[in-house]
Design goal:
Blueprint lengths: L17 H9 L4 H8 L3 H15 L16 H7 L32 H16 L3 H7 L2 E7 L4 E6 L10 H6 L14
Antiparallel strand pairs: 1-2
C-alpha cells in the first residue's frame, strides 16, 4: 500500500510524505542521520515512515479514543471550556490531528513536532536491533550468563514501561502525551 499522508484521512498511514522527510533530513544537524536517510530507496523510505507512524500510534495522545469532532479554539480561550482531547475528524484513522490541532481558520493540521518525531523514529528504526524488542517487552533490564559453574542472572525492571521509541521522539512529543494516572498498589 502506498504512503498516504492525508490530514485526517480514513486511510492515512503516515503523518509526513517522503518529500517532507527528505527536506527534514537535508538540513538535519546530525550527519549520520542525513546520510542514512539519503542512502534509502523510495520504497525503503516509505516503509520506514509507515513503520514509524505505526509506532507513534502506540503512544497515548488522546483522552477519549471514540469521541470525534472539532471544538473551536476560541471557545477554549474565551469561555475556558474543559476540553477532552480526541480525534478531529469522524473517520480519521490516525490519532492526529486532534480536536485542538487546528490552524487559525479551524482547519485540522499535523503539528510540526509530530512530523519531526515521525522522521526521527523512521531513521531510528534503521539502526534498531529487533531482538531488543523481545528483551524490552519482557521488562528485562540486564542479563548475564557465565560458563564456569553455569550461572544465569536476569534483572527485570520495576515500574518501568519498556519502549522502542527513540528518546528524541519522546522528547519532541512530551507536550502531546497523555498519562493514564493508573493507581499502583503495593
Amino acid at each position: 500500500m502506498a504512503l498516504d499522508a492525508t490530514v485526517g484521512g480514513s486511510a492515512s498511514n503516515s503523518y509526513v510524505t517522503v518529500g517532507e522527510a527528505d527536506k527534514y533530513f537535508s538540513t538535519h544537524y546530525i550527519t549520520a542521520k542525513k546520510t542514512a536517510w539519503s542512502a534509502l530507496s523510495q520504497p525503503q523510505k516509505e516503509s520506514a515512515l509507515k513503520r514509524a507512524c505505526q509506532q507513534l500510534e502506540t503512544l497515548k495522545v488522546l483522552d477519549d479514543e471514540l469521541a470525534t469532532g472539532r471544538l473551536p479554539i476560541a471557545l477554549m480561550i474565551d469561555y475556558g471550556y474543559d476540553l477532552t482531547i480526541h480525534r478531529a475528524e469522524v473517520n480519521q484513522k490516525l490519532q492526529i490531528p486532534r480536536n485542538i490541532d487546528l490552524d487559525p481558520f479551524g482547519i485540522p493540521l499535523i503539528p510540526q513536532e509530530y512530523k519531526d518525531a515521525q522522521c526521527e523514529q523512521a531513521v531510528y528504526l534503521l539502526s534498531f536491533d529487533d531482538s531488543a524488542i523481545v528483551t524490552l517487552t519482557q521488562g528485562i533490564v540486564e542479563e548475564a550468563v557465565t560458563a564456569g559453574p553455569i550461572k544465569s542472572y536476569t534483572k527485570y525492571s520495576e515500574g518501568f514501561a519498556p519502549t522502542y521509541i527513540a528518546p528524541m521522539v519522546l522528547e519532541l512529543l512530551r507536550p502531546f502525551l497523555r498519562y493514564t494516572g493508573r493507581l499502583r498498589r503495593n
